[in-house]
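Lecture notes, structural biology module. Today: joint structure prediction for complexes of two components.
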Amino acid sequence: KNQVEQSPQSLIILEGKNCTLQCNYTVSPFSNLRWYKQDTGRGPVSLTIMTFSENTKSNGRYTATLDADTKQSSLHITASQLSDSASYICVVGASSASKIIFGSGTRLSIRP
Amino acid sequence: GAVVSQHPSWVICKSGTSVKIECRSLDFQATTMFWYRQFPKQSLMLMATSNEGSKATYEQGVEKDKFLINHASLTLSTLTVTSAHPEDSSFYICSAIKTGLMNTEAFFGQGTRLTVV
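The predicted structure, tokenised, for the full assembly:
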């Protein structure tokens, strides 16, 4: 069964600290994995997209990793800022049957 | 990148009335679109999968007679909240699936803030 599981469900950290969000998937055959950031009251915005051959991709203070063997991805946020408070959603695409599987998201709160 | 337009971005309606929300894929065709609802400080909750030319698939606990979904064309899906009540006040988001030869990707609308008074 194609599934995407994110952890933790929610996370609270102090401003300036680093954090890592996890995404494990069982989607097959794998096509791509995308991390979205969703601010409250807005549509999700894409942070990174990774394909099978990519291990790491950065977007500013956001760095996504992908291990296609273990079917795990992580999103690392460096030197967190208050504006990083949002939901982070992992979405995995399959290359057949046109499937897209959404994770339930991680709610991140940055405290001053 | 591909663009998904959701309209309206916000709406206020009286209790008992119906509200229609549109989700359009502007530069690609989408046979599949998803509708989500999000309550304050919570993650997106999948309501239903909208398939062009066929009936939508609803998630458990979502009333199909209350949340009517129509996906009559490859670029448009609509969600109608019928007989809206204050508890239906929420943020509704759609996503459209773009299918390519090698890739399948999801693109999100901007969301619709519904307030029922």
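Point to remember: Chain B has a mean pLDDT of 91.
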